[in-house]
Amino acid sequence: MTETDSPDGRIASLIEKLTLQEKIDLVHGDRDPAELATGYLPANDRVGIPSLSLVDGPMGVRAVTATAFPASIALAAAWDTDLAREQGEALGTEVRGADQDVLLAPGCNIIRVPECGRAFEYYSEDPHLSSRLAVATIESVQSAGAMATAKHYVANNQERQRHAVSAEIDERTLREIYLPAFEAAVKEADVASVMASYNRINGTYATEHERLLTDILKDEWGFDGFVVSDWWATTDAVAAAHGGLDLDMPGVPVHEWQESESRIHEAIGALPDAAPKGTLAELAAKPWLPDGANPNLFEGSVFEDPLREAIEGGKVPETAIDEKIARTLSQMDRFGMFDDEQPAGSVNDPAHETIARRVAQRGTVLLQNDGVLPLDEDLDSIAVLGPNAETAKIGGGGSSEVDPTAAISPLDGIRERTDSGTTVTFERGVERIEEPHDEDDGALGFSVPDAIDDALSGDDEEPSIDAAARAAGSADVAVVVVQDNASESEDRSLWLPNEQDRLVAAVADVAEKTVVVCNTAGPVRMPWAGAVDAIVETWYPGQEDGHVTASVLFGDVDPSGRLPVTFARRTDHYPASTEAQYPGIDFEAEYSEGVFVGYRHFDNADIEPLFPFGHGLSYTDFEYTDVSVESGDGPEASVQVTVENVGDRDGYEVVQAYLGQDDPSVERPPKELAAFESVELAAGEETTVTLDIDQRDVAYYDEDGAAWTVDDGEYTVSIGRSSRNIVATETITVADSTIVE
Ligand code: GLC
Fold it and tell me: Which residue ranges form the domains of the chain, and what is each CATH number?
């Protein structure tokens, strides 16, 4: 094999041929002539480098009509890495089917605050669950021939002022809570790219953060892929070049980007180059920009002229650019792009719709049920109520939006599922909630309103709670479908919008039986929880919404989801409940809760949640027997649990193992998720589940020693159906303190 035959040699020889301008053109994006890719790196035909197309997003391929998979939080609620692999492979196949090379997903950020506007795009409040799902998704997306992107690195945990806020985090909290999913993405899943986030971490922008991008990501973890910026996130060419950013996207100002935010931007983009387009576009957008809008939305890439000037001025060595390009080209080579060996993929495979439905069904969480569910087949009448019950909840607003190949609403799903003997009525009850698809808001969550033709959409007749209550009062069961309207670039309220709480209360007052179906991005307040007979959380189910909702309500499938986030009784019960913590003061958010995020806080502060992390009911019942733990001298341990389905229906159970140090040398959460396994059991069937706890899940990060450390001593292993429904506990003893490599 000659020098140029080896991948590195081949890449090096390509780079040697490049002029400085050609190198500059390989470290920032440009407009995709096909107007499909979210980000695009043009080909260099002279030396033989193909173009690179990057596309959103975690819930489906943004560029084309594609399968709208369920929200990432719904996938997380299934607690099933095998299922995550099925969905990831389908998603990667659709990326290739759309002739794209890189999927800008998964979102690996921890759901630190329930108000996070992108909670639906993330997995969990727990780093172990997030890490397992990130690895499964990345490996499977990449197995289908698409590069995956672990985003948004790191601590992009709120949308409020996302382009300016600094996450003020201590090292131990960073290591134990916010980095693990990204570390696993790199060290276990060999992710092709990592996206640097908009926010600052301890005062430094992620795109310029040398410690995070170079010292930890590239040097300590051995990441050999490329770091891509979030869109318009890079503001300083020299700092980003030295910090470790490899590719600045999208590389063109918003009014020249292929997905212009509005017709006004398109018009500005079409003006002669001499026109002050950036200024005009900024003036046009200014009144509607969110409070933390992208810093250089209206300028070209800092990795174009400013970087070339920095190189020519000796501030950035040209070799630094060569290393950046080598990272991107080596991933292109790894995925067969130089040898035209990429899989063709497909976008419209009906099997993907089945996977989308199964994931959403498995992620559906039965929060409360007094026995009204599953619904009887021979109901005479069902009243379906809710502002958007006749619209499928495809997803949230922003870059994750997908134009679905099909869609079925909860109302149509219930109508389709019932026979002619059942009357299904529908009343909105309250004003319809605007859906992301209703407006052409574009990826950044804002649109410059087009002139006069914004005629108010809406119903001929005013919806009324009274009409909904009347419908509910005359039906055998009332199904109220409520939803929030989360979107990127803004955070969400925990209160349901448009007076839906009043609607649910009015229905519950008169209905014989009331079932509430929640299409929400994460936790919401439920002041009516005690007044209704059942609550089902379906998150954003994607295009199969109606089939998912009906199949769960009628018991065709067992609702097997378990909460990946805590639902609190009160807003101030959540860990980051002061303004200094969230959204922060003077653009600084103090992560002073430290490692006590989510259930870690509720346990440590002994606060009873409304619905705890890991909670979820089933239509059948399970019994745990024969719990045993083998650990030798520790810290690894193997837990064996025999689970029996003692009910009369098939169902899924998620066995959870938590670990807590009995007498820690540092303040540690009472228990932390260390392993889990979901199993499907037929009625009467039993199986023995093995949960392996590895030493990293026993360790804490010792900031002084800068090392993962396991103290000697005793640890309690808690086996449960949720973080608050512990069925058995066992003790393991670690004989010797250990530093975990
Ligand atoms: C957006 C998002 C990111 C997305 C990118 C491209 O602002 O933060 O998740 O992949 O820009 O749309």
Answer: 3-249+315-334 (3.20.20.300), 253-299 (no CATH), 364-564 (3.40.50.1700), 620-740 (2.60.40.10)
